[in-house]
C-alpha cells in the first residue's frame, strides 16, 4: 500500500533535513523484516555468494559480524521491500523524482559493538541521494542509535583531515537522538550531519 506524505511532512523534511516515518512497516511486516535480516546474518558466504560481510572487534575482543552489504539481488523479499512502491513512493514524494537503489546494507550493531564516526554521506558525481534507515529492532540511545543535527544540511559543515566532521564544529552543535521502533524509518539527505555511539545495552 502506498503512503501519502502530507505537505507538513515535506516541509519538515526540507527544513530539518530528515523525516521520521512511524510504522512504515506494520507489525507483521516488521516481524518479517527481523526474520529476513537474520537470514542474511546467518547466510553462508562462499565463492558463489554475492554477499559482502564485514567484521569488527567488539568491546570484549571478539571478531563479530557487524555489517552485510549487497544482499537485495539474492533475497527476493528484501529486494521487494527496498525496490517496492511503498518505499519508492515516499522517496519520490520527498525528492520530486524517481529514485533507484544505489547501496543496501544491514548494520547489526550487537551489544558491545562500536559506533560510527561523525559523517556526511558523500555525493556521487553530485547525484541526489537519500539514505533510508529502517529499524529492524528498536533503535535507542542506549543501543547506539543515530543522532543528527537538525538543519545541518543547510550549514557549512567543516571536514577534518580524516574525512570526518571537524571535532570543533561537532562540539558546538545540538545532537538529537533519533529513536525508532521496529518498522519505523528515518529518511535523510546526503548533507545531514549524523553519528552513532557504541551499543552499551
TrEMBL record:
GO terms for molecular function: metal ion binding; oxidoreductase activity. Pfam families: PhyH (PF05721). Gene3D superfamilies: q2cbj1_9rhob like domain. Its cofactor is Fe cation. SUPFAM superfamilies: Clavaminate synthase-like. Belongs to the PhyH family. This is Phytanoyl-CoA dioxygenase. It comes from Friedmanniomyces endolithicus. The lineage of its organism: Eukaryota, Fungi, Dikarya, Ascomycota, Pezizomycotina.
Amino acid at each position: 500500500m502506498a503512503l501519502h506524505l502530507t505537505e507538513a511532512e515535506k516541509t519538515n523534511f526540507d527544513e530539518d533535513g530528515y523525516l521520521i516515518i512511524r510504522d512504515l512497516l506494520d507489525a507483521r511486516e516488521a516481524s518479517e523484516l527481523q526474520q529476513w535480516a537474520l537470514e542474511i546474518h546467518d547466510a553462508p558466504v562462499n565463492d558463489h555468494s554475492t554477499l559482502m560481510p564485514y567484521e569488527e572487534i567488539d568491546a570484549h575482543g571478539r571478531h563479530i559480524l557487524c555489517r552485510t552489504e549487497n544482499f537485495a539481488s539474492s533475497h527476493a523479499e528484501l529486494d521487494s521491500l527496498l525496490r517496492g512502491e511503498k518505499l519508492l513512493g515516499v522517496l519520490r514524494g520527498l525528492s520530486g523524482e524517481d529514485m533507484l537503489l544505489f547501496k543496501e546494507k544491514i548494520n547489526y550493531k550487537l551489544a558491545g559493538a562500536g559506533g560510527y564516526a561523525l559523517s556526511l554521506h558523500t555525493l556521487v558525481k553530485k547525484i541526489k541521494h537519500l539514505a533510508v534507515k529502517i529499524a529492524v529492532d528498536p533503535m535507542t540511545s542506549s543501543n547506539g542509535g543515530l543522532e543528527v543535527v537538525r538543519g545541518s544540511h543547510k550549514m557549512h559543515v567543516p571536514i577534518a583531515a580524516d574525512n570526518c566532521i571537524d571535532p570543533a564544529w561537532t562540539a558546538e552543535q545540538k545532537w538529537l537522538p533519533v529513536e525508532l521502533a521496529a518498522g519505523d524509518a528515518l529518511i535523510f539527505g546526503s548533507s545531514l550531519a549524523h553519528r552513532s555511539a557504541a551499543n552499551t545495552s
